[in-house]
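Q: Give me a backbone?
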Amino acid sequence: MNRLRLIKLAALLGMIGPVLFAVVVTGLTFAEADFMRSIGWDPFGNVLDWPSGLALGPYGWLMTVTFFVCGALMAFFAYGLKLALQEKLATTLMMLAGFALMGLVFTSDPTLRSTPKTWHGFLHDAFFAVLGFILMPGMLLLGRAFQRNAQWKDLSMYTWGTLALVIPTFWLKGPAFYAFLLAILVWSEVLAFRLRSTQ
């Protein structure tokens, strides 16, 4: 497959990933609402274990598969950005963030529990932390790469503005995490559409 086709494919997968994640998380949140409340989740207060806790519910396998698939789509999309922008560092960090998202397939532990932490719960939390520590520098550097490219320059400030929202909301346990997830999904979708239109 030549470079142009790879970029087009990456753009398509980049558009599918955020929509898929949003649909699955939203659907499971409604389908497993009673279960999520039983482990301490409050949609308007304490959002403990959301969305990772959805993988613990009766349809949890769907959330686990979604983490893996969306992480893979994110990594391939970042590869497409690498080909289009001819930039290595920022896009490599974005690829690694996709791999970290795939790592969330290890089932989390409920925050409110009477049992010791499990090995898979530890790995889940570790990959979640890695995702944050990689994604944020990647966005910072990607904004700089956009600034140097005429076709992407207008997305530079948007990327940095999204990052300014993402930094605090990623670490907060509460409704602010909804803002983090929405901002990242929308930003990813915007980038995917731009990648498609520039080739």
Remarks:
- Residues 3-104+116-197 form one domain.
